[in-house]
UniProtKB/TrEMBL annotation:
Residues 1-60 form the HTH lysR-type domain. It comes from the Bacteria. It comes from Pseudomonas fakonensis. The keyword ATP-binding does not apply. Pfam families: HTH_1 (PF00126), LysR_substrate (PF03466). Keywords: DNA-binding, Transcription, Transcription regulation. This is LysR family transcriptional regulator.
Amino acid sequence: MLYDITSLDLFITVAQERNLTRAGRIKHMAVSAISKRISELELQIGSPLLLRNARGVELTPAGQSLLFYARQLKQTMAQLDSELSGYASGVKGHIRIHAITSALSQFLPQDVASFAALYPQIKFDIEERVGSAVVRAVADGRADLGIIATQTASEGLESLVYRHDELTVVVPGGHELTTRKSVGFKELLEHELVGPHLESSVHALLTSEAAKLGMTLKLRIRISSFDCMCRMVSNGLGIAVLPRSVVSQYQRSHKLKAVTLDEPWAQRTLSLVLRKYDAATPTLKTFIDHLRLTG
């Protein structure tokens, strides 16, 4: 079934305003012309889209469905215009990424840099988010690609393995655990912790594993930044669980010690999530293939 883009755009405005007159003012069109367009859509679909009343209009179930897909189509067309106009000015694509702190602190900067060296005219928008927010952004179309830990539910998105990391225990100099090569999680729970953000993948994992032991986290401080967590630990405000490569960046400057967390779940997998690889733009596919190759 072929749809007229102008009619769909008019329908979106009518649906948003819930009033044909207001929609006419916005679109600089006569109400009769808009009404004719809506009637043509209804005839094409074979079902009423609007319920007219004294105050304006309401959407029928068919109208709600059309609004959803019309908005998606409008967003896709806008992305198409943006990307194709970019080619005219020498820019060869645009990728929006939302990622958890673990990915941004360890792997993504180097991977983006190596990709940019191969494709210098591709632009990136990269935002740091907790895992659940990353999934929502990709599902809603606000991000083209997300990076999460596998402990975060991907909610029906396509998931591809990205990298592996290791969670380790970070303690300040002079702490009783500094003499240890490894420590079990149960023993770790006896100590006060500097914890990550409430919605972070690390927090969710630690909380879940503590519950399996019938215990809870002794959280003294909760903070979102890995850098700030290391600073808090360095000042004796607790110990923390962080990716090993993150801790290594601060060990010398903050006088910290990394102690192996002796648990199988301390070995984590980070995943790429997107709506559908087969439906991704060529630019996004090329970037994903690069990430998987370098990983």
